[in-house]
Amino acid sequence: MPLDPVTVRPEDVEARRTAARDAIQGAGLPEAMRVAAPGPYGLTRTALDFLEGLEGALAAGQAAEAAILARIARDRSAAFAAGTATESERRFAAAFGALIACEEALGASQRLPDAALPGRAFPADEVAPVLSANEVARAICRDLRGYVDHYRTHADSARRLGDATRLAVCARSYLKRMALAAREAAEAIEHQTLREALDAATLRLPGVDYVGLVRRDASQEDEPDLLEVGPEDVVGNAEVLAAALKLARAVAAFDLAEGRNPRTVANPVLFVLGSPGCGKTTTAHAVGRYFLDLCREARLPARFRVIRRTDWASHYQNKSASDLLRIFREEIFGFHGVAGAYWPDIDTAFAARSDPDIRTEEKANLSTLFGILDGTVGPRNGKWFLLCDANYLQMDDALASRLTEDPKMARGPETALDYVRLLRDIKLARWRNHLPGEEVWPAIGSRLVASGLSGRAVAAIAGRISAALQDIDEPEGFFTMTYEEKSRVLAEQARSITAEKIHEEIERYVRFEKDAAERAHRARFDRRVEEIHLQLRAHAAASGLA
Asked: pTM score, two decimals?
């Protein structure tokens, strides 16, 4: 049974940066690197980048070690030992913290000059003093300092240090071998119960998950939240799609080694306005997947964050707008790679801002948050972009004037060809062999245009047609078949559909469901706005009582 995750928050990592920096300086690592590969003014850019990445990685490792020990002390289940951690459990937490520190440092330095990394760990007896030290971060820094000094004066001139490239290869090789050694220590038989517990619980760091001892990057974490769509699945919205893809490509051009983007990202925010169901969400998710695929191909660390209504509601219920601002500052602006974000239905926040009962502090927080949209909040470094959309433009005049200078309009399918492509070629593509011939589709497309239906409505009609196609008597043994076998049988035995049936489903939707769907969507919008109003008032009341 899965356990609740062991979570390391961004602030937990930040709180340990000072200690990590002290460990690096206390070990004399900067001086050792300066001597091993001197720059014209001291440390080279390569050495500075490495040390900066190492600092964050050591802080993450320390925070993870503390989180594991805290969970061990808290948990009373069979998975984690009750009470104070034993010596064995402390060794496991230290080894796991060292593994995380080394792997995160490798990730942060992957753009530095590199060679093939070694595939063998340091001998267990050599690293035992490091992994069993009371302060593993300091022990790693001292050990790395000795490693650099050893190769700085190595007897073999071919392995001797002397420039930034050789120093980067040496330091990254150390991290790789230490990571492998820490993994071996954590995999010892005495730690089996703890490993199984972490398999079930998952350790969550900012931008990274560890399932057991296996690391999952931010892109691997965030991508499953995106719809299974690509730019080719977007119908209509050509202007929005082109602008969003252009923005995503510009951010993906960022060069981590140089720390800057050769392309100019004049405005990292794309604001989209469109009626409900016009395909704004599909377009944004398609751009998100395109962005992650592009960065993966370029071996550029990337994430795409969706600001969900549950995030928004929970932040307003428990904290304030300032915590949502923290998400942007730490998870988007502060991510070590490039990042994109999608904030849907932002008009609910616009509407909440006008509530006269919201106290001054909350209005200030919301104003700061909206500063992301008009460029007053967020670095202009070409490392991030934001897609946001609204269904109803309910804003005060000042904010509207800043955001509507060049909004993109999402209209969804507009022409008969758009509607045919959406219904037949995308939504019913699986059943193409059971659909009527080409001659009937212009009339179907024209009827959809005349109805003024949204893309969401077309998807609902496609769902009804799919159900009709699959209305068959199941053959013997159907319910014991695998998913693939059931899909094959349904495809082979599906009923053919007539043009008359498709027109019938369109008319039924227009007659009975179109108005009801639009009213329901507007009601949901009004409820969400009211929820935010109530939560902000409750927050203000609680603050007054305090």
From this structure: 0.52
